[in-house]
Design goal:
6 helices, about 160 residues, 7 strands, globular, 7-stranded mixed beta sheet, Aminopeptidase, alpha+beta
């Protein structure tokens, strides 16, 4: 198993892995319609675009993509960053892959230069991120109008 930077040729496989993960893991917290909107927003083309403004990583095992995550500037700021698109194939949950992704992102230059890091978290993933020291932004413990929790960490 290895983690490496995303390549355009990874887009279709990564998008399919994300779609499967959303449909398998997040449907307990979101409606099917919301899941399909999210799946559509993470198409292969959108992942390629995302890789242009973030440092996007994939976890590969035996030639298959089993996880991904990215980090980029928070609205173009130099001293703030955001984590995005963190997914692990459902069959691989509990094996430390999510931890590997977070640790890689937290060694990236976008993380190291930031004083504050934000994560737009699904309801499903909030407790996972809390294990790494992320907490509710400004103490607001309810999801926003997009049904997303805004979490943050200060360095």
């Amino acid at each position: 198993m290895m983690i490496r930077r995303f390549k355009e040729t990874d887009a279709a496989e990564t998008s399919a892995m994300i779609a499967n993960t959303l449909r398998t893991c997040n449907t307990k917290d979101y409606t099917p319609e919301m899941m399909e909107e999210c799946v559509a927003s993470l198409s292969p083309d959108s992942l390629v675009q995302r890789s242009g403004w973030t440092h996007f990583y994939v976890v590969e095992d035996e030639g298959n993509i089993i996880g991904c995550g990215s980090i980029g500037p928070f609205w173009g700021k130099e001293d703030e960053s955001s984590l995005f698109t963190i997914f692990v194939k459902p069959e691989e949950h509990g094996k430390g892959i999510g931890r590997m992704i977070i640790e890689t992102l937290e060694q990236d230059e976008y993380f190291l230069r930031a004083k504050r890091i934000e994560i737009p978290s699904s309801i499903t993933a909030v407790n996972f991120y809390k294990h790494f020291g992320y907490d509710h932004k400004k103490g607001f413990e309810e999801p926003d109008e997009e049904m997303i929790y805004r979490l943050e960490k200060f360095r």
